[in-house]
Design a protein that fits this description.
Elements (H helix, E strand, L loop, with lengths): L6 H7 L3 E5 L8 H9 L4 E5 L6 H4 L4 E2 L2 H4 L6 E4 L6 H10 L4 E4 L6 H10 L2 E5 L13 H11 L20
Parallel strand pairs: 1-2, 1-4, 2-3, 4-5, 5-6
Helix pairs in contact: 5-6
Protein backbone atom coordinates (compact mmCIF):
# COMPACT_ATOMS: atom_id res chain seq x y z
CA UNK A 1 0.00 0.00 0.00
CA UNK A 2 1.50 3.36 -0.95
CA UNK A 3 1.39 6.56 1.11
CA UNK A 4 -1.57 7.85 -0.88
CA UNK A 5 -3.77 4.83 -0.26
CA UNK A 6 -7.28 5.64 0.82
CA UNK A 7 -7.55 5.79 4.59
CA UNK A 8 -10.90 4.04 4.22
CA UNK A 9 -9.07 1.17 2.49
CA UNK A 10 -6.40 1.06 5.21
CA UNK A 11 -9.05 0.61 7.88
CA UNK A 12 -11.12 -1.84 5.81
CA UNK A 13 -8.19 -4.06 4.89
CA UNK A 14 -6.17 -4.11 8.09
CA UNK A 15 -6.75 -6.66 10.83
CA UNK A 16 -5.52 -7.09 13.38
CA UNK A 17 -4.08 -3.71 14.22
CA UNK A 18 -2.18 -2.55 17.27
CA UNK A 19 -3.81 0.25 19.26
CA UNK A 20 -1.27 2.06 21.46
CA UNK A 21 -2.32 4.36 24.29
CA UNK A 22 -1.21 5.54 27.70
CA UNK A 23 -3.68 5.20 30.54
CA UNK A 24 -1.36 6.97 33.00
CA UNK A 25 -1.62 10.21 31.01
CA UNK A 26 -5.34 9.88 30.25
CA UNK A 27 -4.66 8.75 26.70
CA UNK A 28 -6.65 5.53 26.78
CA UNK A 29 -8.76 5.74 23.60
CA UNK A 30 -11.88 4.51 25.37
CA UNK A 31 -14.48 5.51 22.78
CA UNK A 32 -12.40 4.13 19.91
CA UNK A 33 -11.65 0.95 21.88
CA UNK A 34 -15.39 0.44 22.54
CA UNK A 35 -16.24 1.17 18.91
CA UNK A 36 -13.68 -1.35 17.62
CA UNK A 37 -15.14 -3.95 19.98
CA UNK A 38 -18.77 -3.23 19.06
CA UNK A 39 -18.17 -3.42 15.32
CA UNK A 40 -16.11 -6.59 15.68
CA UNK A 41 -12.65 -5.38 14.66
CA UNK A 42 -9.63 -7.52 15.57
CA UNK A 43 -7.06 -5.51 17.48
CA UNK A 44 -4.57 -5.67 20.33
CA UNK A 45 -4.21 -2.88 22.85
CA UNK A 46 -0.75 -1.96 24.15
CA UNK A 47 -0.94 0.35 27.15
CA UNK A 48 2.13 2.38 28.06
CA UNK A 49 0.52 3.07 31.43
CA UNK A 50 -0.39 0.88 34.36
CA UNK A 51 -3.96 1.89 35.21
CA UNK A 52 -6.45 -0.94 35.66
CA UNK A 53 -8.56 -0.88 32.50
CA UNK A 54 -10.49 -4.10 33.13
CA UNK A 55 -13.87 -2.32 33.33
CA UNK A 56 -13.28 -0.41 30.08
CA UNK A 57 -11.76 -3.43 28.31
CA UNK A 58 -14.86 -5.59 28.85
CA UNK A 59 -12.87 -8.80 28.77
CA UNK A 60 -10.36 -7.88 26.08
CA UNK A 61 -6.79 -8.42 27.17
CA UNK A 62 -4.66 -5.36 27.79
CA UNK A 63 -0.96 -5.74 27.00
CA UNK A 64 1.69 -3.77 28.86
CA UNK A 65 4.78 -4.85 26.92
CA UNK A 66 5.75 -5.93 23.44
CA UNK A 67 6.91 -9.23 24.90
CA UNK A 68 3.36 -9.95 26.12
CA UNK A 69 2.05 -9.35 22.59
CA UNK A 70 4.17 -12.13 21.16
CA UNK A 71 3.38 -12.79 17.49
CA UNK A 72 0.18 -10.77 17.35
CA UNK A 73 -0.07 -10.96 13.55
CA UNK A 74 -0.44 -7.37 12.34
CA UNK A 75 1.60 -4.58 10.78
CA UNK A 76 -0.29 -1.34 11.56
CA UNK A 77 -0.06 0.65 14.79
CA UNK A 78 -2.73 3.21 15.62
CA UNK A 79 -1.03 5.50 18.11
CA UNK A 80 -3.03 7.67 20.49
CA UNK A 81 -0.73 9.16 23.12
CA UNK A 82 0.37 12.70 23.95
CA UNK A 83 2.74 14.02 21.29
CA UNK A 84 5.57 14.07 23.83
CA UNK A 85 5.23 10.27 24.15
CA UNK A 86 4.85 9.54 20.43
CA UNK A 87 8.49 8.51 19.97
CA UNK A 88 8.28 5.96 22.79
CA UNK A 89 5.04 4.56 21.36
CA UNK A 90 6.55 4.42 17.86
CA UNK A 91 9.64 2.59 19.13
CA UNK A 92 7.40 -0.01 20.80
CA UNK A 93 5.32 -0.38 17.64
CA UNK A 94 8.54 -0.94 15.68
CA UNK A 95 9.67 -3.53 18.23
CA UNK A 96 6.26 -5.24 17.80
CA UNK A 97 6.92 -5.55 14.06
CA UNK A 98 4.73 -2.73 12.76
CA UNK A 99 5.56 -1.54 9.25
CA UNK A 100 2.89 1.18 9.16
CA UNK A 101 1.77 3.80 11.66
CA UNK A 102 -1.22 6.10 12.05
CA UNK A 103 -0.78 8.97 14.49
CA UNK A 104 -4.24 9.86 15.77
CA UNK A 105 -5.28 13.37 16.77
CA UNK A 106 -3.01 15.17 19.24
CA UNK A 107 -0.28 12.53 18.79
CA UNK A 108 1.93 13.24 15.81
CA UNK A 109 4.99 15.45 15.85
CA UNK A 110 7.83 16.06 13.40
CA UNK A 111 10.38 14.07 15.46
CA UNK A 112 8.12 10.99 15.49
CA UNK A 113 7.43 11.28 11.76
CA UNK A 114 11.18 11.58 11.09
CA UNK A 115 11.91 8.58 13.31
CA UNK A 116 9.29 6.52 11.46
CA UNK A 117 11.15 7.23 8.21
CA UNK A 118 14.47 6.23 9.81
CA UNK A 119 12.94 2.98 11.06
CA UNK A 120 11.39 2.20 7.67
CA UNK A 121 7.85 2.59 8.99
CA UNK A 122 5.30 4.04 6.57
CA UNK A 123 3.25 6.89 8.00
CA UNK A 124 -0.31 6.53 6.70
CA UNK A 125 -1.86 9.50 8.56
CA UNK A 126 -0.95 12.20 11.05
CA UNK A 127 -3.89 13.79 12.79
CA UNK A 128 -7.28 12.32 12.05
CA UNK A 129 -8.93 9.62 14.14
CA UNK A 130 -8.86 6.17 12.47
CA UNK A 131 -12.45 5.49 13.58
CA UNK A 132 -13.64 8.17 11.15
CA UNK A 133 -12.56 5.88 8.31
CA UNK A 134 -14.34 2.72 9.42
CA UNK A 135 -17.25 1.47 7.33
CA UNK A 136 -19.23 0.85 10.54
CA UNK A 137 -19.04 2.91 13.72
CA UNK A 138 -20.80 2.66 17.06
CA UNK A 139 -21.83 5.05 19.83
CA UNK A 140 -20.51 8.62 19.81
CA UNK A 141 -18.07 7.65 17.05
CA UNK A 142 -21.03 7.15 14.69
CA UNK A 143 -22.10 10.79 15.13
CA UNK A 144 -18.56 12.14 14.87
CA UNK A 145 -17.96 10.06 11.75
CA UNK A 146 -21.17 11.25 10.14
CA UNK A 147 -20.17 14.88 10.79
CA UNK A 148 -16.63 14.29 9.46
CA UNK A 149 -18.10 12.75 6.29
CA UNK A 150 -20.62 15.59 5.86
CA UNK A 151 -17.92 18.27 6.15
CA UNK A 152 -15.59 16.48 3.74
CA UNK A 153 -12.90 15.78 6.34
CA UNK A 154 -12.75 12.08 5.46
CA UNK A 155 -12.57 12.71 1.72
CA UNK A 156 -9.28 14.58 1.93
CA UNK A 157 -5.99 12.79 1.14
CA UNK A 158 -3.78 11.37 3.89
CA UNK A 159 -1.70 13.83 5.89
CA UNK A 160 1.86 12.64 6.08
CA UNK A 161 3.59 15.39 8.02
CA UNK A 162 3.14 16.94 11.43
CA UNK A 163 2.84 20.55 10.31
CA UNK A 164 0.61 23.04 12.08
CA UNK A 165 -1.94 23.04 9.26
CA UNK A 166 -2.89 19.39 9.61
CA UNK A 167 -6.56 18.50 9.93
CA UNK A 168 -7.47 16.70 13.14
CA UNK A 169 -10.90 17.11 14.65
CA UNK A 170 -14.06 18.65 13.27
Amino acid sequence: MNNRASLHDVMAETEPFLLVGDSDSERFPGMSFACYQKVGRAFCYLDLGSRDLSVEAKGQRIFHSVEELGDWGGDLALIWVHAITAIKALELAHKAGCKRVWFSFGTGNSAAVALAAELGIQVVEVGRCPVLFLKERAGPCRVHGWFANATGLTGLPPQLDAGLSRRELV
